[in-house]
Amino acid sequence: MRSIKYILVVYDVNEKRINKVHKVLKKYIIWQQNSTFEGNVTQANIKRMIYELNKKINSKEDSILIYFFNSKTVIRKEVDGIEKWNVSSNFI
């Protein structure tokens, strides 16, 4: 059985690298807001995603935070205004 995690990724990178980081993240999880992605992902894809991100960022300037949850049911999310994507429809 594949180990699937629900993750939240928030990043703050130099303007020159925003599109590169965004492009990597959208391959694996769903874009929610500026600099914020979330979704279900396998452990193998988490490793690939982190590897790809490390190739795109400057570790002395940029910051990427990844929050790991065992499932989406252990967190509570409230949205004021519109939600851009329904993460529960995220394909694995």
UniProtKB/TrEMBL annotation:
<keyword id="KW-0255">Endonuclease</keyword>
<dbReference type="InterPro" id="IPR021127">
    <property type="entry name" value="CRISPR_associated_Cas2"/>
</dbReference>
<keyword id="KW-0460">Magnesium</keyword>
<feature type="binding site">
    <location>
        <position position="12"/>
    </location>
    <ligand>
        <name>Mg(2+)</name>
    </ligand>
</feature>
<keyword id="KW-0540">Nuclease</keyword>
<dbReference type="GO" id="GO:0004521">
    <property type="term" value="F:RNA endonuclease activity"/>
</dbReference>
<protein>
    <recommendedName>
        <fullName>CRISPR-associated endoribonuclease Cas2</fullName>
        <ecNumber>3.1.-.-</ecNumber>
    </recommendedName>
</protein>
<comment type="function">
    <text>CRISPR (clustered regularly interspaced short palindromic repeat), is an adaptive immune system that provides protection against mobile genetic elements (viruses, transposable elements and conjugative plasmids). CRISPR clusters contain sequences complementary to antecedent mobile elements and target invading nucleic acids. CRISPR clusters are transcribed and processed into CRISPR RNA (crRNA). Functions as a ssRNA-specific endoribonuclease. Involved in the integration of spacer DNA into the CRISPR cassette.</text>
</comment>
<dbReference type="InterPro" id="IPR019199">
    <property type="entry name" value="Virulence_VapD/CRISPR_Cas2"/>
</dbReference>
<keyword id="KW-0051">Antiviral defense</keyword>
<comment type="similarity">
    <text>Belongs to the CRISPR-associated endoribonuclease Cas2 protein family.</text>
</comment>
<dbReference type="GO" id="GO:0043571">
    <property type="term" value="P:maintenance of CRISPR repeat elements"/>
</dbReference>
<comment type="subunit">
    <text>Homodimer, forms a heterotetramer with a Cas1 homodimer.</text>
</comment>
<keyword id="KW-0378">Hydrolase</keyword>
<keyword id="KW-0479">Metal-binding</keyword>
<dbReference type="Pfam" id="PF09827">
    <property type="entry name" value="CRISPR_Cas2"/>
</dbReference>
<dbReference type="GO" id="GO:0016787">
    <property type="term" value="F:hydrolase activity"/>
</dbReference>
<dbReference type="GO" id="GO:0051607">
    <property type="term" value="P:defense response to virus"/>
</dbReference>
<dbReference type="GO" id="GO:0046872">
    <property type="term" value="F:metal ion binding"/>
</dbReference>
